[in-house]
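Annex B. Sample input.
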Amino acid sequence: MLNGFSDLLAFHLFKLVPGTRLGEAIHFFIYDTLKIFLLLSTIIFVVAVIRSYFPPEKTRRILSQKRQYLGNVLAALLGIVTPFCSCSAVPLFIGFVESGVPLGVTFSFLVSSPMVNEVALILLWGLFGWKIALLYIGTGVTVAILSGIVIGQLRMEKYVQDYVYETKVGEMSLAAQTFKEKLRYAREYTVDLLKKIWPYVLVGIGIGGFIHGYAPADFLVRYAGKGNPFAVPLAVLIGVPLYSNAAGVIPIVQALMEKGLPMGTVLAFMMAVTALSFPEAVILKNVLKMRLLLTFFGIVAAAIVVVGYLFNAIL
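Annex B, continued. Sample output.
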């Protein structure tokens, strides 16, 4: 139905010619815009209801696990069900540190929450199948756990800004609400979130549409294909300034895969876009001293590159 409606708009209303670069790019943009926003509206609502059972104070309490490495695993897993982007997870980071959660554990959450996004997981499942979706979630959680363990072992607590330990983050408990109130919250949250992210989604779909219609396959394969040993780090470097939410980057991922890019390279690009960003760095600079900030970005970027090379080798 969506494909037929997209045909109607692109090739009948706008009088574009099927098979041409412009026609295919506009058709891709219309179809993916309808599909992504339809999926987002449904998925975000469901996620918001789930989120109401995991308020910040409960998350912080669970993450205060003192047993070695278990806290990192719990933090990475909780990051999946707490739908925060890399920037909005920073206030929780302050709350975790202030409440005594180990620094390495907080970083496992800070990586996992935006990288292993449940919206992107469901979208990937629908677009590429369960194997790619599980590959995405498995590698994302692994990167989050290992990054947090490494940072924890480095004992870099002194590189957190001093005021963080004195900050009191406000509590907002949603768990005490009735189910009807949770549904009302979910509806309001869905509307508010869509208002905030729709430009990023449209930009992502627009870039995907341009790649789909205009970027020649031989160019992409030549510079980011298996023959280029630096394709994975290049994808990571490009991904950071192209920051978007996970849902917004899915159309770009789809277009890149259609053009023949290896899965590991595309996966590295997607992880860099969602887990590392300039806006996140600006916010974290007010929380972390430069040495810890650079260490965090360096470790996560290196882990993403390793993941990219690994899956290029085995797929």
